[in-house]
Amino acid sequence: MAYKIDNAIIKKNMNGGITLIDPENVFINEDAFIAIKSDDLITIQLLINGILRNEFKNWKEIGNVPEKEPLKTLFIRLGYSKEEISNLLKEF
Predict the structure, then answer these.
(1) Which residue has the higher pLDDT, 74 or 17?
(2) Using CA atoms, how far apart are residues 33 and 56, in angstroms rounded to an integer?
(3) Is residue 92 over pLDDT 60?
(4) What residues have CB less than 8 Å from 9, skipping those under 6 apart?
(5) Residue, of 10 and 80, whose pLDDT is higher
(6) Is 42:92 a contact under the CB 8 Å cutoff?
(7) What SS3 state is found at 19?
């Protein structure tokens, strides 16, 4: 069972105005939103699915992650190959 984070697209125009693109009306009654880069959102979803399935290969060996390192590098630190990451992405 894959875990899905409800999401929509927040689009900003040249004047700073914001438009919510939410075709499924998930956020129709919400007053506040958080913006997250799309690849970070996908990474968060994959990490949550991995935690739920207890699939991580080398969690104990991850060591200290530099503060400025992108979230998506966690899979490489956890020992996943590009092919394995690609297979995880196919679930979406």
Answers:
(1) 17
(2) 30
(3) no
(4) 20, 21, 22
(5) 10
(6) yes
(7) strand
